[in-house]
Write a structure and sequence with these properties.
Helix content is 42%, strand content 12%. The chain is α/β, with parallel strands linked by helices. The strands form two sheets. The protein has a five-stranded mixed β-sheet. The radius of gyration is 22 Å and the shape is globular.
Length: 434
């Protein structure tokens, strides 16, 4: 039986992305037509039944988020789609933007109807310039066909989507920083509470969901929440687009039902196909650079929010980076830490300075100059950042380090005696290279 389930990705490469006619031919806008005959609460109830969780990384129940905003009676309300896909190893939202943008537009429009919003915004990362052009053309075509804009499908509902661009700042993937950027402010996180459902874009009630989250909405409305839930597990409804990369035979984006195991994802020939080359899998990084690392004893864990959480893992953005035995964990963590140093907004000291100190200690380990005291300090910093950083970036920056310290401690200790099990570190020193 196939482990692939193209519920959301069926149109990828099969239709002209900006053609409303071809999109309708695949069942497109059926969800919107049905939604316009339903009450907003009925739609929210279907999303709750579907057990859809946010696909951007946090995994918050979408139905609960929608209910919270719906119960707020202050208007105007705004709909914002977070397309600032900056998590390393994650490239699935890009495919929606360039191969099936009308699905995202339909999902955003249904949300606009639910919350009686007249304006929606999609914030696309600056590096996705080509995808932004495709999405803008799709918006224009939807307006021309009457599925967006004034008096949609002959109803009194009017809704407009504005396509906005970021400037390549990873921190703007954090929802409140994204809203600040949309308003022309510095892209730094806000103090919460108040929450964005209460005080969001332009200080008005706002819904912020991820691209893949909105892409699910038309299907949930069309087939119903119970049917959608049946594709996944009892607590993780539907399917998930995952991004496989690293030392893997078949890198790419795959849509899978929740519940198959990590072993299936990495080793099944229909999916990852196992490690590329003759090396064995050493560990894997889940959910992007801000996610935890997983190890061989955890391979039989079902891929769903609850089962992974019970094992100290997470779905996150859907990224799975596979690392084989040729990779030194210290060398890999140096790269992860360099990313967070570069992307920190600098607002809070634990993130701004803590990541720099972690990098110093990892460099000492890679050079064979670290002591047991340095390793203890590294452990302390990995515990400190998640407890004291202002936003999710700093809170998650040491997640990979923490999980590797717990599960690959012997490799850290080997570096204290000048031994790199992967044979990556110390090579230059031993050969006399400068």
């Amino acid at each position: 039986m196939s482990k692939l389930m193209p519920l959301l990705s069926a149109n990828f490469g099969q239709i002209t992305p900006t053609s409303v006619e071809e999109y309708i031919g695949t069942g497109g806008f059926t969800g919107l037509r049905k939604a316009l005959k339903m009450t907003p609460q009925e739609i929210i109830d279907e999303v709750k039944t579907a057990k859809l969780r946010g696909r951007g990384g946090a995994g918050y129940p979408t139905g609960a988020k929608w209910q919270q905003l719906y119960d707020i009676k202050h208007f105007p309300k705004y709909i914002v789609c977070n397309a600032d896909e900056g998590e390393p190893g994650t490239f699935k939202d890009k495919l929606f933007l360039e191969k099936d943008p009308l699905r995202v537009i339909e999902g955003m429009t249904i949300a606009g109807y639910v919350f009686n919003a007249q304006e929606g915004y999609i914030y696309i990362r600056g590096e996705y310039a080509a995808q932004q052009k495709v999405f803008q053309e799709a918006v224009d075509q939807a307006v021309a066909a009457g599925y967006l804009g004034e008096n949609i499908l002959g109803t009194e509902f009017s809704y407009h989507i504005h396509v906005m661009t970021g400037a390549g700042a990873y921190i703007c993937g954090e929802n409140s920083a994204l809203l600040n950027s949309l308003e022309g402010k510095v892209g730094r996180p806000r103090v919460k509470p108040p929450h964005l459902a209460e005080v969001g874009l332009f200080e008005q009630p706002t819904l912020v969901n991820n691209v893949e989250s909105f892409a699910n909405i038309p299907t949930i409305v069309q087939i119903g929440g119970e049917k959608y839930l049946s594709y996944g597990t009892a607590e993780s409804g539907g399917t998930k687009l995952i991004c496989l990369s690293g030392n893997i035979a078949n890198p790419g984006v795959y849509e899978i039902p929740f519940g198959i195991t990590l072993r299936d994802i990495i080793f099944d020939e229909e999916l990852g196909g196992g490690p590329a080359g003759s090396k064995k899998v050493k560990f894997y990084h889940l959910g992007g650079q801000s996610g935890p690392c997983g190890f061989l004893p955890q391979l039989d864990t079902p891929y769903c929010y609850q089962a992974l959480r019970e094992k100290g893992l997470s779905v996150g953005s859907g990224a799975i980076v596979v690392l084989d035995e040729s990779v030194c964990v210290i060398d890999y963590l140096l790269t992860v830490t360099q990313f967070f140093i570069h992307e920190s907004c600098g607002k809070c000291t634990p993130c701004r300075e803590g990541n720099k100190q972690i990098h110093v200690l990892l460099e000492k380990l890679s050079q064979g100059k670290a002591t047991k005291a340095d390793l203890q300090l590294l452990q302390r910093l990995s515990n400190l950042l998640p407890k004291t950083s202002f936003c999710g970036l700093g809170q998650a920056a040491a997640t990979a380090l923490s999980t590797c310290l717990k599960n690959l401690r012997s490799e850290f200790e080997a570096h204290l005696t000048g031994n790199c099990p992967a044979g990556v570190c110390f090579t230059k020193q031993e050969s006399g290279e400068q």
